[in-house]
Amino acid sequence: MSLTLKIGSLAIRTLAKPVANYIKRNAREHERFRRLCINFAQRLHRIDMRMRLGLLQDPAVIDRQIQREVEREEARRKARQPPTAETKEEIEAAEARHRERIAERQKTAHRPPRIRPLSESKAIETGANFISESFMFIVAGGVILFETWRNRRKEYNRREDVGERLEELEQSDKEMREMVEKLQAQLATVQPQITTVSANAPTSSAAPEKSGLTTLVAKAVPSKEPQSDSKDPKPDGNPEPPDSEKESSKKP
Predict the structure, then answer these.
(1) Distance from CA of residue 217 to its chain's centroid?
(2) Contact at 8 Å (CB) between 96 and 143?
(3) Do 151 and 1 form a contact (C-beta atoms < 8 A)?
(4) For residue 15, which of 148, 136, 138, 128 has the smallest C-alpha distance?
(5) C-alpha to C-alpha distance for 68 and 47, rounded to whole angstroms
(6) Helix, strand, coil percentages in the chain from 3-state DSSP, rounded to 5
(7) What is the pLDDT of residues 198-218, one digit of tens each?
(8) Which Pfam families does the annotation name (predicted)?
């Protein structure tokens, strides 16, 4: 849960307390609201007392208790009376009175008890407290329900995002598989051409390699042809005469 939501829920619960106190004050000051609180408190009191008495009263236990009380009372009565000779009619009359007392006690025990109502001040206080506590409970329950709903929606959105991402990944994987299949088909069609080119490649490239080697050798080795120079001696070994001698030889 985010920090903002925590602070918001705390603020709502804090503001609910003054509202509950305001409800209590209006229960004493406002006449219509006071009557409503009194009636509501009296109904709650009657329901509470009936539930308690219903849980405490067990018919079998009540019958046994009545029987024991009647027997104890009869024993005390006989102990107080002096021993006299009773006739048959007196004994039957005593047993009849005994059965009547048992029936009266059982009837009284099974009769719904009278519940004493609350006083006005107590009823106002009880009703106001119950309404204010109910308001606090509703506010706290609403905050909890909102937090639960928000967490569920967040989880649902997260699952939707994960599902969309999985769909995108599946789609991209499908596209890549199709692309790989196309590339494999193209490679299968081009493979014979690649094999043919690789088989013919050594014969066709022999001449260019040879010419390239020749060029490299020519650049590396200098030329061995003789170069003529005016100062070099002639091939026969006689040096060439100077120009002055040539001119004197031409004169007569």
Answers:
(1) 81
(2) no
(3) yes
(4) 136
(5) 31
(6) 80, 0, 20
(7) 777 655 444 444 455 455 445
(8) OPA3
